[in-house]
Each structure stands twice: as C-alpha cells, then as structure tokens.
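Question thread 4412

I'm putting together a teaching handout and wanted feedback from people who do this every day. The idea is simple: show students a protein as raw sequence, then show them the structure tokens that encode its fold, then repeat with a second protein so they can compare. Below is the first pair exactly as I plan to print it.
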Amino acid sequence: MQKGLLLVVSGASGTGKGTVCKKLLEEIPTLFYSISATTRQPRIGETDGVEYFFISVDEFKNWIAEEKFLEYAEVYGNFYGTPIHKIEERLQRGEDVLLEIDIQGALNVMKKRPDGVYIFLLPPSLEELANRINGRGSESPETFSRRFNAAKNEIAVGEKYQYVVVNDTVDAAVEKIKSIIAAERCKVKRNEFLFEKLLEN
C-alpha cells in the first residue's frame, strides 16, 4: 500500500495560507488537517481546536518536554508547534496529511521528514501582500511594518522548497496544489511496491 503524503504548505505572512488550505480541505475531504498549537491569543472568529490549539506558555513547554511536537518554533514572540500524535499513524494508513505551518517550522520538518512535499505560497506582488496584511484589521502601524519587512525576508527562503505556487486567486492556487499531489502520487519512489508485486513471480 502506498504511504500517505505529508504536505507542508507555508509562505510569508499575508500570502493567504489559511484561505488556500481551507479551500483545499473542502475539495479533498479525505485530507487530514494537522492543527498546530500556539501560545498566541486567538484572533476574532478563531476557535480553540479548529484553527489552532490555544495553550499557555507553560503547557507548551510541557509538550516540548514530553516530545509531543514534530517541530516547534518561536515566531513574533509566540510559540507554534506541530503535535506529532496521529500524523504518522494516518500516513501509514495511506492518508494524506496537511500541515499549514510557518517557514521556520517547515525548515525544521524538512530535516526530519525529507520525504515530505513542501509547497511555498507567493503573493502576486508586494503591493498585494501589504494589502492582505493590512486587511486583517488586527495590525497596528508598528506590527504591520514588522510583519511586512519580515515577510519580504521570508520570501527569499522559498527557494528551499520543492514547489512554488503564486496565490493570485484561491481557486487557481488550489488547483495547482491538487496537481502537485497527483504528480507526487505517481512518482516511482512512492510506487516501488507496484514493481515488486508485478515482478515477484
């Protein structure tokens, strides 16, 4: 049986990772979404256990000590981590797992899971990136400046990924990611069992 794909989607702040991943999950209902844990405060409309597991710094540190994270990182003064429970179990069952994580976390996962599929989202332009960051309505001028400058630095890291998708429109970005999934499933290295089965006699 073919093992599931570990899909890692990330990009600079404001590139629309959450929106793209939400649409992807709607169109691929069998895709398992791995919810990250964070110590930051929920934004308006976010629910614990849906967008993130919102936990305290002390609880986060306990999870680190108990080795409950595939990866974790500190971003903008808050901790983010990917809980490891259920991920490997689902991959072994042939289910695909989606991680929507920041760049620092993705780079850490690359070291541990080189077999993952790493997709970097780009904005269509820096002007559009600025509009998207401002569009959240939760940024002060100071935090906007910090996030926008950090985002420009993060974009340069995208060259370390396997795939790049420009998020011009959500539908187009999702279609490209679905094509990436289809191509990855057809790779010889993921289908060696087929050759073995056909040639075993």
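The second pair follows. I'd like the answer to focus on this one:
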Amino acid sequence: MNSVHPVSLGSLHLESNVFLAPLAGYTDRVFRGLCLSKGAALAYTEMVSCEGVFRESVKTVALMERADGEKNLAVQLFAPDSDTVIRSVDGVMKYSPSLIDFNCGCPVPKVTKTGAGSALLSKPEEIGKIVKVLVTSTGLPVTVKIRAGWDCDNLNYLKTADAAFSCGASAVCMHARTKSQLYMPYAHWEYLYDLKAHFPEKVIIGSGDLFSAADGIRMLEQTGVDAVAFARGAIGNPFVFEQIKALSEGREAVTPPVSLIAETMMTQLVKMAQVFGEDVACREMRKHACAYFKGIPNGSKIRQKVTSCNTVSQYREALQVRGRVAGFDGSNSASGFVFSS
C-alpha cells in the first residue's frame, strides 16, 4: 500500500495522512494556510489555553481564527485538568472546529509548572477524564498529543495512550521523545513501532525528527504509524508536503530553487502583514526567514540581512527581489520575480 494515503480521524475523513503539527509561535493561520496549499491534509493551531478561552483573552481566541481555505480547523488545547477544559468548551465551539487535539506533550517549563502539557503524563486518569469531557461536550473527533514519558526511567506511553483511547480518543499522536529529552538528542522511533503494535486497530500519528520528505516516508514504513505530523521540519520548508507526495508516487522530491523559496517566503510575509499588521509580521517573519534560507548558498548573508528588516519593502530589498509580486503596498499579485543571490 502507498505510504501516503487517506486516513480518518473519527468522523473526519482526510485526503492524506501527512499533517502540520501544532507548534507554538509558528503555526498561525497564515502559515497553516500556506502548508495546506502545499498539500498538508490537516494543520493544527498553536496551543490554545483553555483558561485563556474561558477568560475571553483576545490573543488566545485569535489563535483559533481559520486560515483562508482552511476547510478543517484542528484546534489544539491545553489545560491542567478536566474542570478547566469544560469551562472553555463553549468558547472553543464558537469557532466551529472540525477536530480537537489535546496537548499532553509540551515540555516547556512555563506550561508544565501549571500542571499542563507533559505534566499530565504522570496522570493518565486525568487524561482520560479530559478526553471524555471533550468527546461528550463537543461531539467532535478528539486526538491527544503525548510524549513517551517523563524520562527514560518512566516510559508510560502505552498507559497514557490506553487512557485516551478508552475514553473515546480518535487518535493519539506521539512525539517519540520523553519530556526530559526536550528536542535532543534524537527521537526514538522504536517507541512509535511499539505503540502501533499494541494498538493495531487505532490511529497512531508519529512525530519527531521529521526534517525531510524522505524522513516522513521512512517513519510511515518503519514504524507502521497511520500518519505523520511535521513540526520543525516544516518551518521554512512548506514544500515538504509536496515533496512527500511526490516520493510516495515514485517521483523525485524536487528541491525548490532559491527564487521559489524567496517568492514563497514573501507571499507568507505579505499575508502576515495583511492579517497581523506590518510591524508584527516583520518581527515574526525573522525566525521563519532564517529557516527558509538555512543551508542554501549565501544563506548566512541573507539571514543576517533579514534580522534587521522592519518593513515588507526592507525584506524585498534584503532578498533583492525584483518584478511584480503580491504586495502589502497594494501591488498586483504575480509570480516569476527574480531573486539574485
């Protein structure tokens, strides 16, 4: 069977099993829309605080705004307990999500110290309660993001996955590291293989060390997971979704030319400026730009230039962009401009 194929998350039927994972500070609605246009079958929001939703925080609820053309909205929530979750449901449902994901995997101290994220890995019973609350109160497919455990001496992914599935989760996504490992040294894909072997009839989504289309194919083939979710590997590289489709069809995963990289980055920036305002967009784009031009000729010089850009025009100048391109300044939309490195 083709590694890339349709998959269902409960009642939600998707055209492929290749997703954009939730990533705080990156998977805003503009970047989600870009990845969806490149072939991602589903794109998760940044982490949304249930407490923030309940308190109607403007910044929190804005994370749930749909991208242009985002047919299926997958909202990732986080909270320390089921009581906090239930208070947020009405606010979340105002945005008509297609699916709810619950985060039990974030290892960042400011999240875990509140009892949320990876802190919940030590409380499988609470994970079960949260899933049951979400399934019952929303009627939507619910997925759960976990890690392998708190540390290598406390691997409990089978127990947390069982708690989630037993209470109605449609899928479990595991980042194949422990909380203590953060993002180093490497993901243990053997944990994903073991998880799928224990739950052969359930949908398992794999994450961790997916930095290329070839990595995605290897994870699907080697671990047997039902889907893969690209996180850091998609930042500055939304092309990975087109590339993995090509590989799955026996075609070459073509590396985009520098001109296309520049065009795609500028398209993202212009849309961000329209949605979030030029000042915010230009600050936020710096981290994306560094990823876009990592590992290419003259990439270090380009990254050095863009870190001081404060306007869309300055980004164009830094990239030495010429010709017509979708413009925040009102210019017509067209492709084919020239990039000179």
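Top answer:
Good format. For the second protein you could add a caption like this: Residues 322-326, 330-341 have pLDDT under 50 and may be disordered. The two ends are 42 Å apart (CA to CA).
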